[in-house]
């Protein structure tokens, strides 16, 4: 990791996040069709995970997100692995990210409860009310603790579809005292209001993070690029730096387990997000190293222009 915290870097200017780790693994030819998705390779082919991280590092990513998104005790138990193995794989995810991206901040991925169900419910949050905040806290607690103990610099609580799950994650983060970011997956309603996939106003969810020192950023991921700019505005209401890492613009068909539509993550759009207040910027599903490299060039160019303008103004 760098010699200073991620929060310090975000206060100074935009930081480049990586892209879709599973996307890069699929590009390398790996089959991720199982319920464990990319987490399967933590067990079966860890060197592939290192190579995927390295590809994003070469593209300029300053933050590496671990392959722990879909690791859970319950999910691994379904394929015959116990809690001890779950912990071992979570710890391994941090060490593999460190190997693939020396000098980067390591973000321990904390995916939502629905991801472990492998039924698409992470994009609806339908389970949140029934499971409840207390049970969600208990469910998330081991992985968050294991990632912290393994040496992650920050926890990426990501693709969060519902207010109840956001509340659970924030309460656990506050108890743990570990730097975290909270990233919702959102949609725009007919009136242009940014909402969680469960339907709650995102601005109200972000506001839950306002008084928590452990939260270094709030924002949005795993959403359409067209919805990012309104989400940045909603997230800024929390008074925290904003994190954004949308999908490519294609859409996931959970029933058919395939992507549909046309990819199009634009560096020009990313610059507009930064102008609106985003500070941690990258990509999620279907965003590979080439797109991250283009984003890196755009953000570095913007920083260079700011430095020239600053010098001219002296």
Task: Describe what you observe in this structure.
This protein is of the alpha/beta class. The chain has one domain: Alpha-Beta Barrel (TIM Barrel), CATH 3.20.20.330. Helix content is 47%, strand content 16%. It is built from 13 helices and twelve strands. The chain has helices spanning 6-12, 21-27, 39-44, 46-58, 73-77, 83-100, 113-117, 128-150, 163-176, 202-207, 228-236, 267-276, 289-312; strands spanning 15-16, 63-65, 105-110, 154-160, 180-184, 186-188, 194-196, 215-221, 242-245, 251-253, 258-260, 278-281. It has an eight-stranded parallel β-sheet. The protein has a two-stranded antiparallel sheet with strand order 6-7. α6 packs across α8, α8 (128-150) packs parallel to α9 and α12 crosses α13 (289-312). The two termini are 33 Å apart.
